[in-house]
Amino acid sequence: MPLRQIITDLQDPDPATRSWAVDSLRRLGTAEAAGALVFVLGDPDPSVRARAAAALAAIGEPAAEPLARYLAAWDGSLGTVIPELLGRLRTTAGLDLLLQHLDEPDPLVRSAIARALGAISLELARSGSDNSAALSRAKTGLLDLLRDIEPEVQIAAAGALGQLGDPETCNALLDEMADDNPAVRRAAVEALGRIGDKQSANALARAAADDPSPEVRSAADFALRSISDRTVGSLVELLTSDALDDRIRALALLLEEGRSAVMPLTELLRRPEPAVRSAAAEALGMLGEPAALDYLLPLVGDGESSVRLAVVRALGRIRHVRSAERLAAAIEDQDPKVSGAAAGALEALGELSVEPMFQLLTSPCAETRVRAIAVLGRLRHKGAVNRLLRGLRDRVAWVRIVSAQALGEIGEGQATTALLRILDDR
To answer: Distance from CA of residue 134 to its chain's centroid?
Structure first.
């Protein structure tokens, strides 16, 4: 059919006829066909508009110039079709138009604009330094949308910034990790993981350990692993070397890397060699990151006492209530080296250990009660006095003796009378 007839059919009152004409122009695939199709972007039927946009995207580069001429006179809302088309074509011709419509009232449109700016930014970044000014403007637009009041817009902007991978946008994404909406926090975390800059490691480690949303914690864990694998993977492997000098050097360098070393080290906790698991646990303890707790805590029950010993020592350096709670169980370990190290680790955790030790005071095992009482005494926690006074009446003499010693270490006045009373205890 002649092109003139197809173009005439674009004006037909029947949407089906107009759709047929759009498909015909798509098959032609020429700049002239694109020049006719751009006018269909204003069609009253949304399905016809979407069909025209898909046809222009399929035509590709020849459609860029006719589209730019048409959009230069655009008036009114963009809708979602125009931004989606500009994003698929990745043409800079529509950059100004997109930036002028960042305040569109519909969040769906603003989300579409964010995705389009992301696609255009990627194209500009690949094209080289000649487009630096345009790229800067596109990034500024994305950063504005990242601060939008609607979560879906923020999420779209974060996704676009993550794909762009520019470390300069990390600070803005880090700010969004404090957002009240967990979906926004997760989008920011995922974007930071894609960017892969080490400056994000500290915040990601905190989120992996403490964010109230399990989805955000999981995303932060994955992002931290992604960053770590790029920066410290070889050092982690060196930590498994048979040569002592290599292991010492690797450990020193890993400690310098800080939080970005946490996730790769946790991978070593799964290795079959006890020496490797122990070395990884020790390194994680030196880093002191709560993000490692999910991986360290199960190893308190490792079949190798050398691994359990390394793990309880590590937990004593990670100041978190979960460390104290798990160490309270380790204080009952059958290996005296492990149980003794657990007691020392609990003492190192200070106030965090008080409540877990209170729980052990009612243990049916006298040896466990003795260890808990000893820890409370060394902590000199005055709030433990009343509970320790009850220990003076324990049926086991050794528990009474250690309770008296603990009260003496605390030095609380109200314990004096009770201590004098047990001087006759034989």
So the answer is: 30
H, E, C per residue of 302-327? CCCHHHHHHHHHHHCCCCCHHHHHHH
SS3 for 166?
Answer: coil
Express each pLDDT in 298-326 by its tens digit.
999 999 999 999 999 999 999 999 999 99
Q: How confident is the model at residue 253 (pLDDT cuts 50, 70, 90)?
A: confident
**pLDDT at res. 191:** 96
Angle, helix 15-28 to helix 46-59, in steps of 10 degrees: 0
Task: Give 207-253 as a DSSP string.
Answer: HHHH-S-HHHHHHHHHHHHHHHHHHHHHHHHHTT-S-HHHHHHHHHH
Distance separating the N- and C-terminal Cα atoms of the chain:
114
Q: Which two tokens stand for residue 120?
A: 């255009």
CB neighbour class for 105 (10 Å; exposed up to 12, middle 13-18, buried from 19)? exposed
**Could you give the residue ranges of the DSSP H alpha helices within 60-200?**
64-71, 81-89, 95-100, 107-127, 132-146, 151-164, 170-176, 182-195
- pLDDT band per the 50, 70, 90 thresholds, residue 243: confident
164 SS3 class: helix
Residue 263, token pair as written in the block: 């996730």
Q: CA-CA distance, 411 to 421, in Å (whole number)?
A: 16
Contacts of residue 380, defined as CB under 8 A and 6 or more positions apart, other chains included, come to 409, 410, 411
The Cα-based distances of 274 to 232, 283, 300 in angstroms read 22, 14, 13
**Model pLDDT, residue 232:** 67
Question: Which tens digits make up the pLDDT trace of 56-77?
Answer: 989 988 888 888 888 888 888 8
